[in-house]
Amino acid sequence: MDRDRRRWLAGAAVLMGGAGVAALAVPFIRSMGPSARARAAGAPVQVDFSRLEPGQQITVEWRGRPVWVMRRTKRMLARMREPEHLRRLRDPGSRVETQQPPYARNATRSIRPEIFVVIGICTHLGCVPTYRPEESPPDLGPDWIGGYFCPCHGSRFDLAGRVYKGVPAPTNLVVPPHRYLSDTVVEVGVHPQTEGG
Predict the structure, then answer these.
(1) N or C: which end of the chain has fewer CB within 10 A?
(2) Which CATH code, of 2.102.10.10, 3.30.70.1620, 3.30.470.20, 3.10.450.60, is assigned to 42-195?
(3) Banded model confidence at residue 196, pLDDT cuts 50, 70, 90
């Protein structure tokens, strides 16, 4: 009877010791991974734009930077392609490869023409431009078709984030890697599967 009791006590002690080791190991192993703050800093961001009306834009944060998701109207898309507008742009063809992923190197700088995803930081000195969708406002002139205006030094970008000639910003706004998870959800920070993401 004493032998059975010793076996039971020994088994219970081994079981309790194993549970104690596991309880200590889990926090230790977790401490070796990146912090929640570090994961959030570089983690992809999912954006549901289902409630975004044509002409509206929302802002999310990715890697500490503002990212804009805008739903363009048919008129916006048509105005962006007008030859007289294209002549006013520094790089209408988006030739600088680092400004957008290959799948956004097109006339709208997007995967889907009506949805525009861009990092909202001016390429001059890092200010945040304002979204100015109205056409021909008095302060921006009769040639303004809508776009982004940087209040810091006057740089201007069109509705595809392409920079105008004669402003301080040297290049177009940067299009981040992104992919669509559904018809109304875009994930910023990950390339589509065809791009190795």
Answers:
(1) N
(2) 2.102.10.10
(3) very low
